[in-house]
Amino acid sequence: MILVTGATGHIGNVLVKKLTSSRMAVRVLILPGDDLRPLAGLDVEIVEGDITDFNSISPLFEDVDRVFHLAGIISIMSGQDELLYRVNVMGTRNVVEACLKNNVDRLIYTSSVHALKEPPHGTQIDETCFYEPEYSRGGYDRTKAQASLEVLEGVKKGLDSVIVCPSGIIGPCDYNVSQMGQLILKYMNGNMKAYIDGAYDFVDVRDVAEGLILACRRGKAGGTYILSGEKITVQELMFTLEEITGVKRPWLKVPHWMANAAGKITSLYYRNSKSKPLFTSYSTEVLVSNCNINNFKARKELGYDPRPIKESLKDSVEWFKNNSHVF
Question: Is residue 248 in some structural domain?
Answer without folding.
Answer: no
